[in-house]
Amino acid sequence: MASFSSGSHLRWRYTALSLALAALAVMHVTAFERVRQPRASMPVVVLFNPQNTDVSPAAAESALLVGMNAWNNVARSAVQFVYGGRVTDTAVANDGRNVVMFRDTSPGDPVATQPATTFTWTNSAGEIVESDTVLWQNAYSFFTGTSGCSGTSGVYLEDVAAHEFGHWLGLAEDIFAGQTTMRPFRQFINGLTPCEQYRRRLAPDDIAAIRGFYPDGPNSAPTLTITSPADGATFLPDATITFAASAFDQQEGDIGARVRWTSSLIGEFTRAGTSVFATGPGFPLTRSLTPGVHVITISVPDAQGLTATATRTVIVANPTPPAGSTNVALASAGAVASASSFYSTDYSPAFVNDGRRAGPQFWNDATADTFPDILQIDFAGSQTIGQVNVFTVQNNFTNPVEPTASTTFTTYGARSFSIEYWTGAGWAAIPGASVTNNSLVWKAFAFAPVTTEKIRVVVTSGALSFSRLTEVEALSVADEPPPPPPPPPPPAGTNVAAAAAGAVASASSFYSADLGPESVIDGNRAGPAFWNDATFNGFPDTLQIDFAGAYTIGQVNVFSVQDNYSNPSSPTATQLFTYYGIRDFTVEYWTGTAWALIPGAGISNNALVWRSITFAPVTTDKIRVVIVRAADGWSRLTEVEALTTGS
Questions:
Q1: What digits encode the pLDDT tens for the residues 313-346?
Q2: Which of 153, 261, 513, 578 is the most exposed place for a label (fewest CB within 10 A)?
């Protein structure tokens, strides 16, 4: 929606209020996407012609400075506007000067559907080298200050100026982010709301945009700190786990809203029962996890594509022995319990492997306030184990209940302890199998399997001076079940990349929950939902689809986002895009050991919404689309299909 003069690189923008269709052509996904063409250099010298028909020149000059300085006063930004004084210009010109002026509309001017229009000139690299702004005084009534504005066409000059200076920095209109400085005065679905005053104060969206593209000094990667859970922490499946992190970028400040959590077992995950990914101060992500050893990876990108990552290992134990696993610490399995001491035969170590988790009988050491105390269990022979459950004494020890993952104690339990196993030559700590300041009656530890003939619990702190345990379980590692038979091949032409066929989509990045990779396998070729990567101009971007099994495929269909993305039509083989599609990409398949290019699937200068690729059949269990160039710096896809050739 811009016009260009190839000689002078003139671009006039539909600024303070004229961006109905042009706003859609920009397609704002994020705050920092909104910088379309940055300035070539700083500082920018600004000149005013404050003569107008509504307010005094002095009042106009003061109001324009308020709008200009809104952008100067942002910490950690290199934006610098410098006022150069008054001039008498009344016409825009590519003359090396940046001028704000008032005038009436005349033939040849853009239609004054907004209070102002900004004209920009760019160099061959697309960077802004000059800007002029015209305020249309015969179409709108300009006021200054904070009171007195009236009429259906009344606007405050401070707010119009702040908006226009955002365009001088290359920011486009922002029709989706609410009350930001760059929100158009006249939305494409609404008329002018007169006398608004929020634009003179930059919103977080505006600040993030200029911090990202005008950083104060070289851009640096964000810093990322996981505050919860602890590395190696063990939980039970129904336990609520708190995932919390802080993310800070030197140029942008707090960027915790972009944090993404991924598990090696379940993939990217959100707060339980929601689509919320982000974490921040006082705003943790809470949920339970499936049993197993989860390597948790957290990542956060900054506005220019630099990404910070951190990892944690979280272990979720099985509450009951899985099929094929047994508790080899039981007396009935031939195991024998002993202890460094016990108070009397009524508190014998024999009670910790009698199969009663709750009690009421328990082991109690004989040395008050003297630690460590040791409870040892010798198995009937060498066993391979992968989990130990330790049960301590409940507050109501005479009438205990069957413990759950959330049962806690305050009075009699073991506070700090670790689990060790016998290597054949000495005792060694089981990795991750220790706890301090414990308050759980049932503490479970899952770990990489070890083979041993005995274990021991070493207690270094207990409530009310003693070590007390009701039960200790050691779960053997179940034999691996035989793999299931392969599924029958689907009929020719079946889309095995669909979620309905059991496929799973993932991506190198995605910007938010509503722009996730799952949209590309939902069966909707047109959209309107689509995947959008999270790294502006940070190529390559990858969209991967794992099938439910290995299939022989002979065709892949790749669908890009249409220009009218909010109201798309069913795509055809000849439909073209201009604004949001992917231009250069490859489609690759997994050979079993590496990624390989599908023959003929290296695409350049693509302009088709629906790009269909047929090829000699290959057998694979996953494919990926690798994007190296897109129409506007972001990788977006609405759907990817992989069609079988049949048996």
A1: 888 877 666 667 889 999 999 999 999 999 999 9
A2: 578
Q: Beta partners for 300?
A: 308
Enclosing H/E stretch for 585? strand 582-590
Residue 563 exposed, middle or buried by CB count within 10 Å (0-12, 13-18, 19+): middle
- Closest alpha carbon to 259 in 629, 455, 621, 510: 510
Round to whole Å and give the CA distance between 380 and 449. 18
| Domain range 499-644, its CATH number among 3.90.1150.10, 3.90.78.10, 2.60.120.260, 3.40.190.10 | 2.60.120.260
CATH homologous superfamily, domain 331-476? Galactose-binding domain-like (2.60.120.260)
From 214, 177, 254, select the one nearest 72 (Cα to Cα).
214
DSSP-based three-state secondary structure for 165:
helix
Structure letter (DSSP) for residue 280: B
Q: What is the dihedral of CA 155, 159, 165, 171, to 10 degrees?
A: -100
Q: What is the crossing angle of helices 157-168 and 57-72, to 10°?
A: 50
Query: Residue 211: helix, strand or coil by DSSP?
Result: helix
**In CATH terms, are 3-213 and 499-644 the same topology?**
no
The residues, ordered by sequence, that sit 6+ positions from 356 with a Cβ below 8 Å of its Cβ are 470, 471
Nearest to 244 by CA among 159, 171, 310, 155: 310
Q: Which residues contact 514 (CB under 8 A, 6 or more apart)?
A: 275, 529
For residue 302, the SS3 value is coil
Q: Where are the alpha helices (DSSP H) in 54-106?
A: 57-72
Cα–Cα distance measured from residue 211 to residue 148, given in angstroms and rounded to the nearest whole number: 34
Taking only the tens place, the pLDDT of each residue in 537-575 is 888 899 999 999 999 999 999 999 998 888 899 999 899
- On whether the CB atoms of residues 447 and 475 are closer than 8 A, the answer is no
- All structural domains of the chain with their residue ranges: 3-213, 223-316, 331-476, 499-644
Residues 253, 258, 263, 269: is their CA dihedral positive or negative? Answer: positive
